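Technical note accompanying the year-one report. For the benefit of new consortium partners, we illustrate the data format agreed upon in the data management plan: each record pairs a sequence with a structure-token string. No post-processing was applied to the example shown here.
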Amino acid sequence: ASESAPEQTDGQAKSESAGQIDTNAPNMASAPALFDLNIRGVPPIAVPRPVDEHLAASEAHALFLRNEDMSDCNQARSVRDDRFFDWESDTGVRWLDDAERQRVLTGLRAAIERLMAACRRQGISTTEKEWQGFDQGEYWWALASAAASGDIGARLKLARIRRPSKIGPDANLRALAHEAFANGDADTFGLLAALVGRRSQSFEIAYPASPPGKDDWRRAPPPTINTGHLWTLVACDLGLACGPSSPTLDRLCLTAGLCSYPSVEEALRDGAISEAAAEATEERRRWVVERVRSGRVDELFVPIPVAAGGG
């Protein structure tokens, strides 16, 4: 379940209405705005200066890549320092037998070191603690400006981390997903997988209950599968780097304790996808990939109901 952001004060609401950041609007704010994130306990974050919505495509993408590096750097330093949680307890690694625990911790140290390369690329110290060494306001300004200028990666990331009420109706998310499919970039598919996993209620898969030709209008009840894992596997099939030492696998290690695996698929199969869900996950994976590769993305999701009187 998504976490709710704290309620805004009247002053905050007025400030945001004057400079609202909307990932789907043709033009974004030209005034400083507040980021209202979908994270409980995190107050709205002020952007220090007007969002730049007129960046060239190359400039916007460079800002987005810098923002991604800063995210990886921040997460690597946070896990290394156990800043806000007990990583071993939260991931369950603490209760593995000693040999397996040591195998995972060895993989964790290697994953942290690889992701620390993002710090070095951006001139950020690897020895400082989380969020030290760079300005949070600049971090959000860069992401907002890249999205405002049309960068698809930045827009996908914003849609994933902002409060749903600030993104708009499901139709907006579907339109963004279609843009991502049309973009065809492997890394974009990875970002789309993260969005669909986080907003799974907006992307109900129209998977048939029976083989084509036999009651194929019916949809099976949703199996016990993790939508995020399903779409991560789809992104791997569509070209996202998911092998040993890939950023995708390293991030999975840091967030879920699935470390020291040769691929994302093996990590998810061994540590995240239950036996009961494995067959259903694989069936839907093949079904989704086939439709994406054949350009039939309109068939992927259950149609959004039209409200009464909505035409």
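Partners are asked to follow this layout when depositing records. The beta strands are 34-35, 45-46.
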